[in-house]
Amino acid sequence: MKIVVIGGTGLIGSQLVSLLQKNGQDVIAASPNTGVNSITGEGLAEALANTSVLVDVSNSPSFADDDVLNFFKTSTGNLIAVAKNAGVKHIIILSVVGTQKLQESGYFRAKQVQEDLLKNAGIAYTIVHATQFFEFASGIAHTSILDGKIHLSTAHIQPIASSDVASFLAKTALSEPTNSIVEIQGPEKFSMNEWIAQYAKATNKDFEIIADTNALYYGASLTDDTLIAADAKFTGKTVYNEWINIDANKK
Asked: What pTM did the predictor assign?
């Protein structure tokens, strides 16, 4: 079976491609640096010819409101159009737990547009909603700096290792479409400030972390369970403290 992974050279995509290749699948890692561009359309028709499953794990290079909306609207529209012509049987996109609750944020409004385009495309689909990746801790910390201190919500978060996300996506690519949203999560629940404190300790970062119930998450307000899966179908096995200490020791 031929599978095309859009964003196939990135964090999730590269791991997904490797897993599918080990499973004996015919896989294309599609990205601009492999000659496939979902924004301009370059190489899409050739890449998707005779493809059964299309997995989109790409992300916008800019999170500015207009940029990110244009990215997901244009990319997803192009992918759907070419996939229809190619007879693709199943489209999978990776999105975020809580997207529908985070519409104050331009990024999550754009992700909602992406999801809605796929739902209305007339092609069988699966939308995978993942909680935040372990690898996102640094980015969350640095986007939460205010007056030299890191202000973080006390809302709950249940982060997941990217390797566990890739593993679930590989299984999804080899399964029947669900035509629904499927939620996945990590094995441990923390408050966001506690999670980033673990990251700071393991990586010897001298952060002053302020637990702030009113802190925004990429411009959106949080309730205690906004970022928690309501009905997770998969829970990763990788424990954060073990993962971050192993990762820190590699550097």
From this structure: 0.95
Residues 186, 100 contacting (CB under 8 angstroms): no
Tokens 């990215």 found at: 71
Query: Cα–Cα–Cα angle for 147, 151, 154, nearest 5°?
Result: 165
Indicate if the pLDDT at residue 116 is higher than 80. Answer: yes
With a CB cutoff of 8 Å and minimum separation 6, the contacts of 231 are: 183
Query: Measured between alpha carbons, how far is 197 from 218 in angstroms, rounded to an integer?
Result: 19
Q: Measure the CA–CA gap between 99 and 201, rounded to whole angstroms.
A: 29
With b for 16 or more beta-carbon neighbours within 10 A and e for fewer, the 166-202 pattern comes to: bbbbbebbeeeebeebbbbbbebebbbbebbbbbbeb
Class of domain 2-250: alpha beta
205-210 mean pLDDT: 93
For the chain, domain boundaries: 2-250
CB 235 within 8 A of CB 184: yes
Name every residue whose Cβ is closer than 8 Å to that of residue 130 and which is 6 or more positions away in sequence: 94, 95, 96, 97, 160, 165, 183, 184, 185
